[in-house]
UniProtKB/TrEMBL annotation:
Heme found in the keyword field: no
Main localization category: membrane
Keyword NADP part of the UniProt annotation: no
Domain of life of the organism encoding this protein: Bacteria
InterPro entries membership: LeuE-type
Name of the molecule in the record: LysE/ArgO family amino acid transporter
Spans through the membrane: 6-26, 38-61, 73-91, 111-129, 149-169, 181-203
Length: 205
């Protein structure tokens, strides 16, 4: 049966995990600013979350939680990914490099390519698994069986809302975000946040 408090718990936990900016959020913002394949990118991020959250709820999260080696791998991998992406953002901000733009070359702007990039940004990013399968999965599968669906629905709704607001919001605000000085500030901020998150992930025990 549907439980509203449990739905809200899932929504809150899902939101708190996705909202801190990381590689995936940064990619969604870039796509929005470039104004190319925004809906495709958002849909792909949401769909991946839905599948992985369902996987976590099915007991896979609890399984991983009891496997220290896998948990460590997700942690180190996640931190390495955030470090790499954070340093890239900071370097790009420092250089004052390119504001994301809809590239005119056919290959560069094809939907297939956009799909490939968002898949890589999501599926090669251990942080994604950590949030969805491990953390949401562990909390979700510790709930009474009758409450799990409400929790999962809440967490999935958080992904749907957040990625939509982020992608469409970035597209809407592209005229401001695409100013070189503003974009540099965005990159400096996202890069710094990612480094802090990486440090937190490593400090966790
Ligand atoms: N539920 C998720 N998809 N989590 C994955 C990563 C979210 C993270 N805040 C990022 O932007 O990269």
């Amino acid at each position: 049966m549907f439980s509203q408090p449990i739905f809200l718990q899932g929504l809150g936990m899902g939101a708190s995990l996705i909202m801190p900016i990381g590689a995936q959020n940064a990619h969604v913002i870039r796509t929005g600013v470039a104004g190319r394949h925004v809906v495709l990118t958002v849909a792909c991020c949401v769909l991946i979350d839905v599948v992985l959250i369902a996987l976590g709820m099915s007991g896979f999260g609890a399984l991983i939680e009891h496997s220290p080696a896998l948990l460590q791998a997700a942690r180190w991998g996640g931190a390495a990914f955030l470090l790499w992406y954070g340093v890239r953002c900071l370097a790009s901000s420092w250089r004052g490099a390119s504001v994301p733009q809809a590239t005119t070359g056919q290959a560069a702007s094809s939907a297939a390519r956009a799909l490939g990039i968002v898949l890589a940004m999501s599926l090669l990013n251990p942080h994604v698994y950590l949030d969805t399968v491990v953390l949401l999965g562990a909390v979700g599968s510790s709930l009474a069986a009758g409450h799990r669906a409400s929790f999962a629905a809440g967490a999935m709704t958080a992904s749907l809302l957040w990625f939509s607001v982020l992608g469409l919001g970035a597209r809407r605000c592209a005229f401001v975000l695409a100013r070189p000085a503003v974009w540099r500030a965005v990159e400096a901020f996202t890069g710094t946040t990612m480094l802090v998150l990486a440090a937190l992930l490593l400090a966790e025990r």
